[in-house]
Amino acid sequence: MKRSVLLALCVVMISAATGCSPQIDSMAIKIQQKDFEHLELLSEELVPNCGASYGMPCQQPLYSVYFFARSSVEARNVCAPVIEFQNELELDAYSAEGASEIAQHRNLNEVIDFCVEGLERNLGSADNQNYYEGTVLYGDGAEDGLGKVTVISRREDGSYFVDFSIGRDKGRIGYFDIQGEPRHRLPE
């Protein structure tokens, strides 16, 4: 009896010291175990990013889970399942990657169409490189305390990259203000 109480007390103390909670760990695992038809998990390893903890226990871990898809996959087959899954986790707003205009999510199909438009349009560049504009999805964590930011992007070679990030520290996961309507840039 004493041994089990001591063990339970140690688990609670370690969790408190490291800042890891079953809630954030379980969500990170849920994301990592998501079976997307056209996306592949980039790494099986799930390691919290502790930022500048300077040898101190990790108080506010940030988890990032990465997926990729080959260039032969249609943009809609990347955008739709990722946005639908983000909506299950929490989806409050969206924007074009790197833009300051962030819109409140009202209609899932509108967000999917916005994402597809950005990933299908080659914006090009002055040095004749392929450039596509990604979509950023935001969840403020109002319901569970976990901020969520997901970036759906496309690389120069046409392959896709998806980064799901979750964390409690809003300074690291990112604050966002609903302002304006997102627009994609026009090709150069």
Q: Roughly what percent helix?
A: 25-40%
**What letter string, H or E per element, gives the SSE order?**
HHEEHEEHEEEH
Spatial strand sequence of the major β-sheet: 1-2-7-6-5-3-4
Q: What is the strand tally?
A: 7
Mean pLDDT: 82
Could you say which overall geometry the principal axes of the C-alpha atoms support?
Answer: globular
Q: What kind of sheet is the major sheet?
A: 7 strands, antiparallel
Total helical segments: 5
* N- and C-termini, Cα separation: 71 Å
Poorly predicted segments: 1-21
Structure class: alpha+beta
What oligomeric state do these chains adopt? single chain
Strand content: 15-25%
Radius of gyration: 19 Å
Indicate how many domains the architecture comprises.
1
Descriptive notes:
By secondary structure, the chain is α+β, with helices and mostly antiparallel strands. It has one domain. 31% of the residues lie in helices and 20% in strands. It has a seven-stranded antiparallel sheet with strand order 1-2-7-6-5-3-4. Strand 5 (135-139) and strand 6 form a beta hairpin. Helix 3 (76-89) runs antiparallel to helix 4.
List keywords for this structure.
188 residues, 31% helix, globular, single chain, alpha+beta, 7 strands
